[in-house]
Amino acid sequence: QVELVESGGGLVQAGDSLRLSCAASGRTFSTYAMGWFRQAPGKEREFVASINWNSATTLYADSVKDRFIISRDNAKNTVYLQMNSLKPEDTAVYYCAGRRNVAPRVKLSDYDYWGQGTQVTVSS
Question: pLDDT tens-digit profile of 57-70?
């Protein structure tokens, strides 16, 4: 079993940056692909970014490409989401997810473990 705990959310203004962290328990973190998803009020949870086990491959939603960067530190069992040039439409609860496979994916159903989420609010 893997536990994922997100941190780093908060209230920021449009154009600001924020870095989310996701700390994972367990000794198999380095073999998992990791992802970030988000869910805005009244909307379905959607894919944001994903990274493979050794950081060689990353995937991004079109809406965040060139603004967000996903990274990981396997020595610290942590995955990050650097969010730059934030927009009000980025406001959502952000979830960290892990899958028992080295390859990154964009579908929610491909992930086996989920964190509780961290709120990001971007004011205009």
Answer: 999 999 999 999 99
